[in-house]
């Protein structure tokens, strides 16, 4: 099935560093979502973006919906050990018939060294 | 409050056997989704229920896979004649409605077909 291009695949950083990851798609999306998944758990929604150009923050997390509606990025500032996990981007299509169907990237594995 | 629950958390079966995976959505959520997550991949859409009916089953890989939601709440994903390639984490999610509503994921069922 279709998946988004998410990069980087993995990151190993020191506590306190900032992190940036992004997603691109060949298709236009109506909504961009960023999820975090920890071992043995399902994905948990971090940030939802609904308008092209929108910049949204949630604590140390900031995400933007690209102007072209084909990309999004997530930044994490001043990382801490509990930020460890896999971060997924997900897009919701614009087509009215299937705008419930999420397409996910392959994830970015984040490791934070204390 | 209670989130989405899934049972069993782990299932080991032999090739050719039949398995059932159960999902208990958040109370009051009318929309329910099944996704499959293979190792190193993001979740991939399988099927979407609105109430009791399967509104979109286009993600089911073949006719060995079937899902029901007879009373509009609990859902069961059924896999017949399991194959080794069916090994994955099966995630269930629910939302208040299908459009622009946050999908809340359960912890998943880890299926291993030997």
What proportion of the residues of chain A is helical, as a percent range? under 10%
As a percent range, the share of strand residues of chain B is over 45%
Radius of gyration of chain A: 14 Å
Describe the oligomeric state of these chains in a short phrase.
heterodimer
> How far do the termini of chain A sit from each other?
37 Å
- Shape of chain B, please? globular
Overall 3D shape of chain A: globular
Low-confidence stretches of chain A: none
What are the segments of chain B in which pLDDT stays under 50 over at least 5 consecutive residues? Answer: none
Helix-strand pattern of chain A: EEEEEEEEEEE
Query: Which two chains touch over the largest interface?
Result: A-B, 27 and 26 residues
- Kindly name the structural category of chain B: mainly beta
Number of strands of chain B: 11
What can be said about the biggest beta sheet of chain A? 6 strands, mixed
* Total beta strands of chain A: 11
* Nearest-integer average pLDDT of chain A: 92
Structural description of this entry:
The complex is a heterodimer of chains A (114) and B (114). Chain A has 114 residues and is mainly β. Chain A contains no helices and eleven strands. Chain A has strands at 5-7, 10-14, 19-24, 29-37, 44-49, 55-58, 61-65, 71-76, 85-93, 103-104, 108-113. Chain A starts with a strand and ends with a strand. By secondary structure, chain B is an all-beta fold. In chain B, the strands form two sheets. In chain B, strands 2, 4, 5, 6, 9, 10 and 11 form a seven-stranded mixed sheet that branches. A four-stranded antiparallel sheet of chain B has the order 1-3-8-7, with no helix packed on it. The termini of chain B are far apart. Chain B is built from no helices and eleven strands. The model of chain B has no long low-confidence stretch (mean pLDDT 94). The chains are: A mainly beta (114), B mainly beta (114). Chains A and B meet through β5, β9 and β10 of A and β4, β5, β9 and β10 of B.
């Amino acid at each position: 099935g279709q998946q988004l291009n998410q990069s980087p695949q993995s990151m190993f950083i020191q506590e306190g560093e900032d992190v940036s990851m992004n997603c691109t798609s060949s298709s236009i999306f109506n909504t961009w979502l960023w999820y975090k998944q920890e071992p043995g758990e399902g994905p948990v929604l971090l940030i939802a973006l609904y308008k092209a150009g929108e910049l949204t923050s949630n604590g140390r997390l900031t995400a933007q919906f690209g102007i072209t509606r084909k990309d999004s990025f997530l930044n994490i500032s001043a990382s801490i050990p509990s930020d460890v996990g896999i971060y997924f981007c997900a897009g919701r299509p614009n087509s009215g018939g299937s705008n419930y169907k999420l397409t996910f990237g392959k994830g970015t594995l984040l490791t934070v060294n204390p | 409050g209670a989130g989405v629950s899934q049972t069993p958390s782990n299932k080991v079966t032999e090739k050719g056997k039949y398995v059932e995976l159960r999902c208990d959505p958040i109370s009051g959520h009318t929309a329910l989704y099944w996704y499959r997550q293979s190792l190193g991949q993001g979740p991939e859409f399988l099927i979407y229920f609105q109430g009791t009916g399967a509104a979109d089953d286009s993600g089911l890989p073949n006719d060995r896979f079937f899902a029901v939601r007879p009373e509009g709440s609990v859902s069961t994903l059924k896999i017949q004649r399991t194959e080794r390639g069916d090994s994955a984490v099966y995630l269930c999610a629910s939302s208040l409605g299908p459009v622009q509503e946050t999908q809340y994921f359960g912890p998943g069922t880890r299926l291993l077909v030997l």
